User: Fold this.
Amino acid sequence: MAPRLILVSNRVNVPDGGPRQAGGLTVAVNAALKQREGVWFGWSGKVSDDDELSPPHVTERRRRTFITIDLSKTDFQEYYNGFANRVLWPALHYRVDLAEFTSVDLGGYQRVNGHFADALSKFIAPEDVIWVHDYHLLPMAQELRKRGHNNPIGFFLHIPCPPPDVLKALPHHEETVGALSYCDLVGLQTEQDADNLSRYFSGLPGAIQRAPGLFEFDRRRVRVRAFPVAIATAVYARAARNSVKSPLVEDLRQSLHGNRLILGVDRLDYSKGIPNRMQALGKFLEKFPAWRGKVTFLQVTPKSRVEVPEYIAMDEEVSTLVGKINGRYGDPGWTPIRYINKSYSRASLAGLYRSADIGLVTPLRDGMNLVAKEYVAAQDPENPGVLILSQFAGAAHELDGAIIVNPYEPEAVAAAIEQALEMPIEERRERQQGMFEHLATNDIDLWAETFLNALGETREQPRLLQSLRQLFASARG
Ligand code: F6P
Assistant:
């Protein structure tokens, strides 16, 4: 039987006419599956009323199989809203202070990982290569090993990995973060993340470090390495060129009456630093009054995780701040901040990015932040905008043509906005060119191929290498 690539993630983008998902994980998994025979397994996005497990839904599309299962209300509450999004999400974003741990939620998280492994188990053939994604599924490799699967298993963490001391603040961390040691390869967004996980692994009981980033636990070997996630740069640049003429962009342009446009695009999430950004905008308007009435800030912020209390609180906080700044600085003909909770397709956003003089990307902590990369890919090389980027986004390790800021210092962000608005065209072009070249070379296809190659090399087994070679050959063919 031909080897298949099995992708496992919480969300699955089933091509069944339902809403398309726009997150970074979806882009990455789609690239891994591109032209490869494969399976994508995960949650259907549906929550069923009863606690009985429903059979998996299977959808076949060309050479791909999509397998999803529903979650019960209890599972959704304990696994997704509870442990994944109220404990792991804040803690891995360095916000242990926001983590609300309960052993019930941890139990639900482990139970759902077990359900996923049970359901997936039936579809796994000995030749398959398995690639698990993100913090919802930290124990998945261990669960699959318990069920006797000796397949190569890779894992990629899309969000940050904090230092060992922070990881150890997670109650029962050995059962979640520590369970990653059952993988053959763990990929992280940056060298800093990889270093943090390596230091954590080396402190686990029984760990033997064989080489930098190579650990042995009870004769199991796991490698840790950075694989900065990327975008489909050429495709995105083309989408941006095409969508500048779209009605959305045309309407926006006309409504600006010649004002310069500053754009922010983020899910409504405390890791994105939206309140800090609003304060920085307030500072900018206070310190640089000559720009009042001449710039418009558009913040596009789809709501997410709307049942989680911290997200409900943030919604209130941002709306209040926007109201205050608009109240203080606006006048009948000009509103400084336009705040929108709608979500737009990646293609529509591409046109907005290309129209913006400044891309303001200032998360307090972010694994990578693909908005930053997409903003760069979308620019007109003759007249590019300027990226202002937080030092705490993974993308800051690569995008050296951005103005790098500390999002906790509103005055510095305000000064960066002024610098960007005044930046001469030659400097803008020069900064843009270097970043675009980097993104054009290091695109999402190369990312997927590099990860899968590294996974192939983790076991010195000719059969595995042969499987991986066949996967690549079918991808190229
Ligand atoms: O890795 C973080 C991530 O999975 C992103 O890819 C995506 O934008 C976001 O989280 C989606 O969150 P949720 O699945 O909770 O809506």
Summary: The chain has a mean pLDDT of 94. The first strand starts at residue 5 and ends at 11.
